[in-house]
Design goal:
Blueprint: H1 11-28, H2 33-41, H3 44-50, H4 54-57, H5 62-72, H6 90-105, H7 109-115, H8 118-123, H9 125-128, H10 133-147, H11 152-159, H12 164-171, H13 175-182, H14 193-203
Helix pairs in contact: 1-5, 1-6, 12-14
Length: 211
């Protein structure tokens, strides 16, 4: 079972929009990559984007969203004209790839960019832009797993004050399975829905929280 952030019908549009958003903000407005990314992740717009609000993942252009983010974060300079290039810039690719990863993993943008700042994603362009997107996904998974050594399951279990065996007893999920999830030897995103549901009920969180 893998829960994506929103309907697959919107992902192509969302990738294109986020790519153009970063391209415009960095290459036309002239902001530093991480400065704009930081403005974006604290904006209410990022929360709407990551849950697939059609207004943002399909209803506006990338530059339009960039302007909303900047205006909402106190930027007051005049915006340059929007220029759409045939060739895709590294900034476009980085935004395009980030949108796909966020959709696929159903993580918050802030969670992703805290571990892998936008400048770091940009550095991946030369190696990954001609590869299959799944190669980029695998690399970003490695970065996030290193930055966040604890799995969400372990984090919620410890917050609840439960041992692995206690969680097994309460949830009905075998102890060995819980151990494998926490050791990342088994991917909880690929577990049966009922297993994740039982764990989430025992821990008082949503199924998505454990992904």
């Amino acid at each position: 079972m893998e829960i994506h952030a929103y309907s697959e019908l919107y992902i192509e549009s969302a990738q294109n929009i986020l790519g153009h958003m970063f391209d415009y903000a960095i290459n036309e407005v002239g902001l530093e990559p991480n400065e704009f990314a930081n403005r974006f992740v604290v904006s209410p717009i990022s929360k709407e984007f990551e849950k697939g609000n059609p207004t943002y993942v399909a209803g506006k252009t990338g530059p339009e969203i960039a302007k909303l983010v900047l205006t909402g974060s106190g930027y007051s300079k005049r915006f340059p004209d929007e220029v759409m290039y045939i060739d895709r810039s590294p900034e476009y690719w980085a935004g395009w790839s980030l949108a796909y990863y966020q959709w696929l993993r159903n993580y918050h943008f802030m969670h992703i960019l805290k571990a892998a700042p936008f400048s770091k994603i940009l550095e991946m362009y030369s190696i990954y832009h001609e590869m299959d997107i799944n190669q980029f996904v695998d690399r970003l998974d490695d970065i996030l797993n290193t930055f966040y050594p604890q799995t969400p399951l372990r984090r919620y279990r410890e917050i609840a004050g439960l041992s692995q065996s206690e969680l097994s007893s309460i949830s009905g999920v075998p102890l060995r399975q819980i151990q494998l999830f926490e050791q990342r030897q088994r991917d909880i995103r690929k577990a049966q829905s009922i297993t994740v549901l039982m764990l989430s009920k025992a821990l008082g969180c949503s199924m998505e929280d454990l992904m």
